[in-house]
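[Automated response] Your request has been received and processed.

Submitted sequence:
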Amino acid sequence: MCSNRRVEHTRAMTPPAVPAAPTGRSAVVTGAARGIGRGIAERLVSQGYAVVVTDVDAAAVQATAAEIGAVAGLAHDVRDPAAHRRVAEVAAGHGRLAAWFNNAGVGDDGRLSELSEDQVRRLVEVNLLGVLWGMRAALEAFAGPGGDGSGDIVNTASLSGLGPVPGYSVYAATKAATVSATMSVAAESPRRVRVHAICPDGVQTAMLDEQDPEGLGAALVHSGGRILTVEEIAELAVGLVGTGRVVRTVPVWRGALMRTISLAPGVAAKGTALFAAQGRRALRRG
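Generated structure:
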């Protein structure tokens, strides 16, 4: 899912990814019609997974499935718990479900006082509840018929979930909750189930493009230097599969900075204007 403000983007048609030899494993990627989700799905296809891609945009996800060689492209509202179970059933029909990527999210920016009630509710329901329902469906599938009790869950979180981010107050809160839930579920899951969160800084996606360029949030995102690419985040997200790493920040130094700032949010608030000014200069240059 993406923000209410829609911007039409064109993408050059690329040939379907050349899949590796089938592995007998399937994978699910939510929010995969475009952006990071699509990048993740392309890599999984190239590694021999039977990939089920889902998105709230039915037409776009079906087109993506055909373009990248996924086995199915499903319309999927991640706010619906039952919908996740149906997706898991489809994936299990193509091989043992081995990996589930909770990538779907919305990115409405703005101060808490500026967001509508509908925006606040949608941010919480998509970004947090959607991840919780997805993790639960994946855990059930890993342990259920056709599963072998093992699997990986990768949640797309954000560096904004590691510290104060004025201008993204509700969005950041949902990502902080995602990081917390990831760590807790990782600790309570069976030994052969691995749960991860990837926390990137700003990534060049349609979601970022749709945010208010004059807003405080956009200025702070661009204060950290280079905007990351979909390709590098997708590669790192897939690279978490099979590892014991629970939280991966990108870039690492920015993650360390955010964690340090979170220890003294009052002091950090005083630096907001400085960081925002730096970000606005970067936006003007770019």
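Summary generated for your ticket: DSSP finds eleven helices and seven strands in the chain. The two ends are 26 Å apart (CA to CA).
If you did not submit this request, please reply to this message.
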